[in-house]
Write a structure and sequence with these properties.
Blueprint (H helix, E strand, L loop, with lengths): L36 H4 L2 H19 L4 H52 L3 H15 L2
């Protein structure tokens, strides 16, 4: 069995770093204690260059096609759907917790009412403390 050699796609060279530097006439003197190279690099040019290089790499490897864009959008849709489901679950759990604590507080208020009616001051005070804890900070 003869093995075929497939041609490898080689990405084109990236833009040189000297494109990021400002001409000397546009440079602002740096404040004291800061290295002068920081003032020479343009951040927006670096971002544009990175985007240009990314597009160049994707085009060379075939990742910039319509099919790749479709796959990227499907992945993004799936991630958003999963995030929506997770948010729904969190909200439902929060609602259930709220109902649980409301029920606990109602039960404690009933216990306190019975304790007041039977003139049990210790139980009344105990229920008040539990109600304060259940209501939270």
């Amino acid at each position: 069995m003869v093995r075929r050699r497939t041609a490898r796609r080689i990405a084109p060279p990236l833009a040189p770093a000297h494109e990021l530097l400002l001409p000397r006439s546009e440079c602002v003197p740096p404040p004291k204690g800061v290295f002068p190279t920081y003032s020479l690099v343009r951040k927006e040019a670096a971002g544009e260059l990175a985007e240009k290089n990314r597009i160049t790499r994707e085009t060379a490897t075939g990742g910039n096609s319509q099919h790749a864009e479709y796959n990227r959008l499907r992945k993004q849709l799936y991630e958003l759907q999963q995030a929506a489901k997770a948010t729904e679950v969190k909200v439902n759990c929060a609602v259930d917790d709220e109902k649980h604590w409301e029920g606990n507080i109602e039960d404690l208020l009933k216990r306190k009412k019975v304790a007041v009616a039977e003139n049990r001051l210790g139980d009344e005070r105990f229920c008040e403390r539990l109600i304060e804890k259940a209501e939270g900070p």
